[in-house]
Give the backbone structure.
Amino acid sequence: MGINFVVVVENVLNRTQEEANREFGVVDMGEGKIIPMWKIIEFKGKSYAEWQFTPRYFKKEEFPEMWEALRKYLVRVKEFFGGKIYMDNDVVWLGLEEDGYLPYLLDDEELAPPDYEKYPELKDIKELEGLIW
């Protein structure tokens, strides 16, 4: 067992579970049990999507290549669902039902691409590349 990220995004565009499944996939757990990568949930009268299988937690300042791989994916997630992204780790945040509040809000600056002229090694990193699961 390790520490993993938790990620919740506002579902402003009111995507259905089927649309989220088509875009991001599902995991077949066997014996007919299918779990979506992003589960559509309701919280305090609003629609959200919660990432079900997240990578291991890391500090973005210490692992810029891993952060770039995650950041690129999160940008795509934000564009698909249309809302703000909230993120923490599963040691301090247990879930909407358990904690009753959203995790830390990522601001637009955190999701902005880095200066690729200054950090050219980050430019060709692919979504989720090099993350630990």
User: Anything to note?
Assistant: The two ends are 11 Å apart (CA to CA).
